[in-house]
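All the exercises in this workshop are built on plain-text protein records. An example says more than a description, so a record of this kind follows:
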Amino acid sequence: MFPEYDVIVVGAGHAGSEAASSAANMGSKVLLITMNMQNIAQMSCNPAMGGVAKGQIIREIDALGGYSGIITDHTMIQFRMLNLSKGPAMWSPRAQSDRHEFSNLWRKTLELQENIDFWQDMVTGIIVKNGVAKGVYTQLGVQIKSKSVILTNGTFLNGIIHIGEKQFGGGRIQERAAKGLTEQLVELGFEAGRMKTGTPPRIDGRTINYKVLEEQPGDKNPKRFSFTNTPELEKQISCHITYTDTKVHDILKTGFLKSPMFTGRIQGVGPRYCPSIEDKIERFSSKDSHQLFIEPEGRNTYEVYLNGFSSSLPEDVQYKAVRNLKGFENAKMFRPGYAIEYDYFPPTQLTHTLETKRVKNLFFAGQINGTTGYEEAAGQGLIAGINAHLKINKRDSFVLKRDEAYIGVLIDDLINKGTDEPYRMFTSRAEYRILLRQDNADIRLTPLAHALGVKGAEERMIKVNEKLNTEQEIRTYLNQTSVTPAEINKLFESISSSPLTQKVKLNKILLRPHINFNKLRRALPDLDMLLNDYNEDYIEYSEISIKYEGYIKKEKEMANKMNRLEEIKIHPDFDYHKLQSLSYEGREKLIKIKPDTIGQASRISGVSPSDISVLLIFMGR
């Protein structure tokens, strides 16, 4: 019935969709198996993509030929660039999406790829022969053979949903849990754990009084995620803001005795940075209120997502508390919030390619690795799909370094440090933030995609070269053009900047604080005329590259210095027991993770600088 596939992807969430499409675009014959074809790339939680550091990941996925950015651009209903009051390293794009259109377009995109087949079924086991993944077993009793397997099971592995004292099996509300896989993987020697996540109640927008709420509109000139020619966003839909108060908190506290979180029925660890509303009240008891965001789920529905109100309290307590929020006095719920527990596998059991160490040609991506968030999952899926294709074709693996991408930071953190709580990406996790900006993801990564032979990368490289040429032309103009005091001092006076006393080159003017191209264009008609000929995104990249050149250069030097440690390889069978000078914890972690290089060893939690010195001395460095 089935041919032998190159890659089988289990699960069609954000990780699975990117994994299937990336492997297919590289030329592999892919089978995507999901328990429900209607829920491909479902936005199970909030209907949004991007955010702090997450927006950078979506742009990186796009630069590498993935689809998350393109599909977000086609389905978004609002766009905001976060952190504009801070430096460009912190600017982070975020979009509200139409949840139904997002999922539908992902399915259509996957179905249009001729290298992808589909099968609706539950995978209950992996076919493993001589330590190599050779396919899957399914609940229907079929065996499907393949050269590699990628598991992207999300929250479905032995998932349990909690609402107050009620609990039932499920991977999402009204969707069954996946059984069998965890048990087999544990038999194969994998370590497994439990995590939890949650979601808030969905509200009927027709019953909300928006007039009394604080409006949160999108940007006046919305940007896009993709570096391709996706459509511009028109007719944005506003989000709104409300707040809890002490009365709401008191109502919620009446349900604490029935809370699965406080009674110990939930064993899994939840996300630190996205706690439930009951957890917020308990942990931040000194706060009288918490901010909540009212986010529309789409253009053609009144369903609203109450961001910040994630809860597993009894539904009657949730309902009463919601009705005491400002603007929600007459609110009706479409469904209550709930918590979900699920199995995951500590990611220290993986290599940088996301291949497991115990079973060859078996890859894990997404929440199965202990991460949280669509963006983190999609980034892992993309890398797993690429590396599965490369592995079965005996090509060199594809690994992103920490100075090349947030995706590289994400995977490096996971496999070296592991995680005992849902891992979420932040800009603070990256050492080289000025290098890993959202505006230069194409410059950093599209040449790598082109070298890999990713479908569509040749066309993308044309745009990359246009962008680089624009930056060079603007840089040359600024270096060669002088400005007089008479031309610029009026601008300087308006922003309390020191006036000029003589002619100065424009490149020096741009280095001043609070000076940017927008201000200079109003004062200098010739510069304005020059910039009018260029793409606005190219101008933004050029301005940042020129204005922050000194900082960028310094960070590159730091990265190059650290990358030298990546050149010192460690044999996979290196005997750490013979180095008695290593700390006990350091030796234990090194034996467990088996780093490929001294650089990787230096980033393992528990391996001290003195341990690294011992290794370097032993290797004659």
Observations:
- The radius of gyration is 26 Å.
